[in-house]
Amino acid sequence: MKKIVFIICLIVSAQTVFSQSTETEIQNWYEILKHAKTPEEQVTAWSNISESYGYLGKPDSCRYASEQVLRIATESNQDLLLCRAYLYLGNYFSNVSDYKQALEYEFKSLKLAEKLDSLFDIWIATKEIGVNFKELKNFDEALKYLLKASSIVQRLGSEGVSLSNRTYTHLSEIYLELGQPDSALRYIQIANENTDRKSDDYGYARVLYIFAIVHQAKGDHDLAESYFKKCLQFSDEQNVYSPFVTSATRYGKYLYETGNYQESKMYALRGYFKAVEAKDKLLIANAASLLRKVYYASGQKDSSYFYSEIKEAYTDSVFSEQQRNQIQNLTFGRQLKELEDQELLLEAEKQRSQNIQYALIAVSILVLLILYLMLSRSFITNTKLIEYFGVVALLIVFEFLNLLLHPFLEKITHHNPLLMLLSLVSIAALLVPMHHKIEKWATSKLIEKNKRIRLAAARKTIQQLDGGGKDVVD
């Protein structure tokens, strides 16, 4: 009983320290947000706030911060910010295990990145898509996208070195899942060659852990044991929790299977307390599951029962959270869709306004041209030219009225295609007779003008001829 009380107190103490550290980080980002002047700075601050709330297990706050990221990016009307906002949203949905919506936003991010031809953004969107397919156990699709990400890393040259770890470690794990340990070893070796342990402690810890499980899959248990211990030592020194817990639990499981219960219990407990410190419920459940087996095999049934209860409690909690998040994400997804639709409507309205202006300019130019041809006192104009320009002007006027009245027609017809067609036909039926009358008037005026010009020219010629005749007689 005393042992159980001690463990509970240790759990609460660790969680409190972790929470205080992350809460401080969130407050720091809120301070940065207060002084952020550009949309880029605001997006960076909100995305980090969202990520921190995710670590604290506060999905509601995390969702709110993610929504702010999209709102700012949308209002800024910058494709690059929108591309990255979609990626952050994809990461949020991935963190709450909603991989379908995660993929939806990551594909949107990839589309914009390809439009911008930004290799870095193409790489990260492609890589995240591959990782989500890996989580869904769709290893063929995961391999397809991660190999594409690998080719982008190679195209980036020296700039891609820092990106290699996040690409090749996932490729190595996929090949392990596909039962190809030799290919897995090849890619983890490439990742190791391109990972700086000083600047990327998490990446290097992951490399050590994957080396361990690759050698374990190849049956080289001595090398596997060596890499497990290296990973645990390095992760503990750098306080990198995820590789530490997975390595401790995996190595503890190996020791349990070989009958070394004492050492297995030691490593399982180390992994368990680190998972508790990080508040990672799934890793807590995995470590507790191993501890339940180890204590039972050691004949300590009370402790085995205790960890069995913890394992069940955290497993149920993870499942309940996933279910709750999926339900809430339906509402969140709809809100995001409405925000995107609103932006599309604003963009369409802006485009419509521009088109109206272009139509007005075109009509004005044609009208001025026709008036010039009609009123010019020295230029004889072909009536066919007036008729041609008149038809063009009629079409532009019709398009102008269509653009101008389209929202109103959509509202009164409720988007009914047949009623919309009838409305446009009615407008055309009014325009055509008006066009014919104006054209007839313009033609008659033009003929009169041409007659006047020809008559004036004839008089001038006669006067010249008369004047020339007098000179001959003289």
Question: Care to describe what's here?
Answer:
With 474 residues, this protein is mainly alpha-helical. It has a domain at 349-473. The chain has 17 helices and no strands. α1 (2-34) packs parallel to α13 and α16 (383-413) packs antiparallel against α17 (417-473).
Give the SSE map.
Elements: H1 2-34, H2 39-55, H3 59-76, H4 79-95, H5 99-116, H6 119-135, H7 139-156, H8 161-177, H9 181-193, H10 201-217, H11 221-238, H12 241-257, H13 261-278, H14 281-297, H15 301-375, H16 383-413, H17 417-473
The mean pLDDT is: 78
* Number of DSSP-assigned strands: 0
Distance between the termini: 146 Å
**What are the segments in which pLDDT stays under 50 over at least 5 consecutive residues?**
1-19
Q: Specify the biggest β-sheet.
A: none
Order of H and E elements: HHHHHHHHHHHHHHHHH
Describe the structure concisely.
The chain is 88% helix and 0% strand.
Keywords:
elongated, single chain, about 475 residues, about 0% strand, mainly alpha
